[in-house]
Amino acid sequence: MTSQETQFRPQPPDDLPRTVGELRAAGHRPRSVKSEVHDNLVAALRAGENPWPGIVGFSRTVLPQLERALLAGHDVILLGERGQGKTRLLRTLTGLLDEWTPVIEGAELAEHPLAPITPASRRRAAELGDDLPVAWLHRSERYTEKLATPDTSVGDLIGDVDPVRVAEGRSLGDPETIHYGLVPRAHRGIVAVNELPDLAERIQVALLNVMEERDIQIRGYTLRLPLDVLLVATANPEDYTNRGRIITPLKDRFGAEVRTHYPLDVAAEVEVVKQEAHLVAEVGDPLLSVLARFVRNLRASTVVDQRSGVSARFAVAAAETVAAAALRRSALTGENPAVARPIDLEAVPGVLRGKVEFEPGEEGRENEHLTHLLRRAVAETAGELFAGLNLRPLADAVADGHLVATGERVTGADLLAALPELPVLHEVAQRAGVSADEPAPRIASAVELALESLYLARRLAKDADGTTTVYGP
Predict the structure, then answer these.
(1) Does 20-259 carry CATH code 3.40.50.1820?
(2) Splitting the chain (473 residues) into consecutive groups of 10 residues, what average pLDDT does each group show?
(3) Which of 25, 49, 116, 300 has a C-alpha 20 to 30 A away from that of 162?
């Protein structure tokens, strides 16, 4: 282990027992992984705590099902399209483990000092008795994740004979010649297999004993290794993928199958973007709502291949692209702070076209469809934001000759300077959550959204020459 890894690795408290004798004297009793998860989940629910930090939009649908499965002690498979937060959800399971758990110091697997399972550890326990040294494992080190790929082998997951150990003089029949795979090394922890159908069927068979009998078989060895693991997995619905399938006996061994989904409303979609996106410039809530509606429009569109799905990562990447466009304009014009405006949305279709799969026959029309659905999202957001607000004074001002230019080299101050002082502009900014004393770029973003809504309602015209867009009568 490098010095850097040691620095960031959680260090156990000094007052924890360091030998088996001290562990027994402290009254410690072994618990299975599923018992730990069960007890800690019950305690969190009774205390009114959130066991699922960072998980958005699942509180009334997915999480109750998952909690029931864990309380029942079931292995779980999460079924859903790409980008629905399945892996993120599985990673939060570590929070339901005990913060520290004792293991036999120096053992190859994370064996409990009071319940060794490998021949080597049992021999050490018999020889040392109460002096068997104890180390402590943090819960963050008890989660193992494997992305299933067609080239994954039984040796990767379960284990195989180690030729080096055989060469050292051990016989082939000696269980200590085994090099343990990922699942045994996750003993007393959580094993997550992502995209389970991608695992070759003959490899899936190797998991049958792990899930039912809780032991492993390696190349005909009679070794019985009673593993203590919680096995969780993710998969796309079988009807939606041609990559593979989960064999029936393996599917039968999962106690629960929980179906995930995309955020059910705009607010949840916006919250996901806020949580996950790394924005290099300021993107206000109105534009985030536009992007959320844009993604939802894509998911409802008949020209998009819905079997593939439209990932939540699309909205995140779109927000990051819009922020990058705003930062670029800020760098070109010297304007601060860098604040995204509706003109920055034009960067989204071209950059992210490859993240959406269209139905056959739509080749060559991808940008057209994306632009149409994005404009519809702008209209829907503006319609909700400015509902009941009379924007006619703004339209009349533009019609009277106050043409408004926007673009990558137009600052927010320049945009506002093109308009006369109008009370409606303050109301527009207020609807967007911007006060009159805030910097011009923030006010300009709200005003430009109002101008774009008037254009989409055919109350204004818009002329673009590539770098500059002008709103006029």
Answers:
(1) no
(2) 56 91 93 96 96 92 96 94 90 95 94 91 93 95 90 84 62 67 92 90 84 69 80 77 74 92 92 94 95 94 83 91 95 94 92 84 84 94 93 93 92 93 92 89 95 94 87 90
(3) 116
